[in-house]
Amino acid sequence: MPNMPTLYPGDSRPDPSGNESLEKRDKTYILHPFTPIGEWENESPMVIAGGEGSRIFDDQGNAYLDGTSSLWVNLLGHRHPAIDRAIQEQMEKIAHSTFLGLTHEGGIRLAEELALRAPGNLQRVFYSDNGSTAVEIALKLAFLLRRKDHPEARRFFSLERAYHGDTLGAVGVGGINRFHAPFYPLAHESLKAPAPDCFRCPLGLSRDRCSIDCADVAVRTIRRHGPELAAVILEPRLQAAGGMIVWPEGYLTRVSQATQEEGVPLILDEVATGFGRTGALFACELEGIVPDFLCAGKGLTGGYLPLAVTLFSEGTYRRLKEDPGIFYHGHSYTANPLAVAAARATLRELEKGRHIPEIPRKRIIFEKLERKLKNLPFVGNIRSIGLVFACDVFADATRKHPANRETMTGIERRAQSLGLIVRPLTNTLYLIPPLSISFDDLILMGDILTESIRGSSPNPAG
Predict the structure, then answer these.
(1) Is the pLDDT of residue 20 over 90?
(2) CA 366 → CA 94, 119, 223, 244, 248, distances in Å?
(3) Are 233 and 156 in contact (CB under 8 A)?
(4) Mean pLDDT, residues 174-179 taken together
(5) Sign of the torsion angle spanned by Cα atoms 211, 212, 213, 216
(6) CA 184 to CA 225: how far, in whole Å?
(7) What is the mean pLDDT of the chain?
(8) Mean local confidence (pLDDT), 414-418
(9) pLDDT of residue 2
(10) CB 3.0 to 4.6 Å from 201: which of 210, 212, 439, 443, for a disulfide?
(11) Using CA atoms, how far apart are residues 106 and 111, in angstroms rounded to an integer?
């Protein structure tokens, strides 16, 4: 009989009978991301069993509007027939083949289709499997190129409250301390400037002055440290995980101009903002900006399978070909054929020209929702871009102190009881529905959000 591993206090063997509940099995074997461990062990989690369109269903048969697009990935609704069909057709051929030294038709065709749709001259594609890896790739490529002429260029520039992923390179350019601070000793921390959050101005300025002065600070920092910068990395127009910070128009343009003047590569992280979320296929197109590297993921496959891309120009490709001649970075599931099939089907659906062009009409619903929320004394900083809506909840009518976690959890649970999934970011509530959501469902989302806030009395800040 083989030796059995030692059991530690609290350990248990799997139940071979399968009689334990799913909830108990979850709590026995799983560690969940971004989830307080003690709270999770004391709660009864929702077990998701299915989905269709803008709704997901739990194992008790209850339906919920997917207010977060399943963490910003679901673009065209759950169980989209065209994406389902594309994956099924690919499964009949092959599910996976390495991309190291081999290629396949789907990967080639998707790269060509992305090149045709990408801003400017971004026609080369490097595949990976999630946003963090797409960012790591861009950071590495920028460093390899920049060091040729500037061997001292070993730092990156990013913004406070930035989120670019959880791998160590991405942590170094991140700026959300509760996520990143424990790992800074392991990472190469970037130079940072304040995020252009004109409601919570880090410089203590008025809204109008904030948009100008925050850009000034960023530009001065880039110019002062230009020779030592390997790249500038930004989330264009919307810093999502940092609190749904909607940038003032023109900020991206000013920072982009500074990078061009200093010859510093610009990386735009469009993992959360790409594929229509902000009202254009890519957020940088809202200001006519073409970066040196563009990172995309999340909605690329319609939220079906992990796939990400790092886009760059032919000129960059040729410089890499000259030196170092090989890029030592890759992933086992690079250009996975099933994920590629889902992505191609997603792009074809977007190409039909219905979802993104409908956003201005759907934003009228957001405008009506804003008017409702303005009547609630504890709500402020209401903002939106594209099909992203956010507001902040406060502890009192002065709107100086953020509502505490207990209040936000109460709002989240009340929304869930009324049939809406939301996930607050500290004291920020947001809606990021699938682009395909119907007008009626979008109105219902707003109504439930309003009722959930109204029905939860804010507690003093804690």
Answers:
(1) no
(2) 43, 28, 39, 15, 18
(3) yes
(4) 95
(5) positive
(6) 21
(7) 93
(8) 97
(9) 42
(10) 210
(11) 8
Q: Which superfamily, per CATH, for 22-75+356-454?
A: Aspartate Aminotransferase, domain 1 (3.90.1150.10)
Cβ burial of 419 (10 Å; 0-12, 13-18, 19+) is middle
User: What's the pTM?
Assistant: 0.94
CA pair distance 349, 275, nearest whole angstrom: 11
Half-sphere exposure of 29 (CA within 13 A, CB side): 10
Can you tell me the distance from the alpha carbon of 138 to that of 164, in angstroms, rounded to the nearest whole number?
Answer: 11
Q: Where are the domains of the chain?
A: 22-75+356-454, 84-351
Which residue(s) pair with 124 in the sheet? 312
pLDDT at residue 207 above 90? no
Q: Provide the residue type at 394 as one letter.
A: F
Question: Residue 1 forms beta bridges with which residues?
Answer: none
Using DSSP bridges, classify how beta strands 379-385 and 388-393 pair: parallel, antiparallel or unpaired.
antiparallel
324 preceded by cis ω (within 30°)? yes
Cα→Cα distances 263→90, 142, 145, 266, 359, Å: 43, 12, 11, 9, 36
Q: 269: Cβ–Cβ under 8 A, 6 or more apart, which residues?
A: 131, 134, 135, 164, 233, 234, 235, 236, 295
Confidence label for 400 from pLDDT (cuts 50, 70 and 90): confident
Structure-block tokens of residue 225: 């440290």
Q: Give the CATH number of domain 84-351.
A: 3.40.640.10
Q: Where are the alpha helices (DSSP H) in 226-354?
A: 251-262, 314-322, 337-351
d(C-alpha 408, C-alpha 1), whole Å: 52
E strand residue ranges, 96-255: 124-128, 155-159, 191-193, 229-234, 238-239, 245-246
The amino acid present at 250, given as its one-letter code, is G
Tokens of 59: 């194992």
Question: Exposed, middle or buried by CB within 10 Å (0-12, 13-18, 19+), for 262?
Answer: middle
| 205 pLDDT tier (thresholds 50, 70, 90) | low
